[in-house]
Amino acid sequence: xxxxVETGGGLEQPGGSLRLSCAASETIFSQxxxxxxxxxxxxxRELVALIRRGDYTNYADSVKGRFTISRxxxxxxxxxxMNNLKPEDTAVYYCNTAPAQYSWGQGTQVSVSS
Length: 114
Prior knowledge:
Elements: E1 4-7, E2 10-12, E3 18-24, E4 34-39, E5 46-51, E6 57-59, E7 67-72, E8 77-82, E9 91-97, E10 108-112
Parallel strand pairs: 2-10
Antiparallel strand pairs: 1-3, 3-8, 4-5, 4-9, 5-6, 7-8, 9-10
């Protein structure tokens, strides 16, 4: 069973930046379309960004132009660079394949508040 571990969250002010990391226990990043998801309190989990083979990327409209997804398959790690953070970005962020096929990790909390 693949284990996914998300790190890098924290408390930031609006306009700030954070870089999230996703580590996997097995080599999966080069094999599958990978994605970052988020779940805000009282809301369903939503897909934020994904990266396909060939490093083609897609983003939710709400984060387009502010977030950048990338991966380093040699390190079994995926990243989400989040710039110009907004309060509505507050959520627990998760990584998984797209569509999600592995058990969800614990996620990393991102809080944006002044």
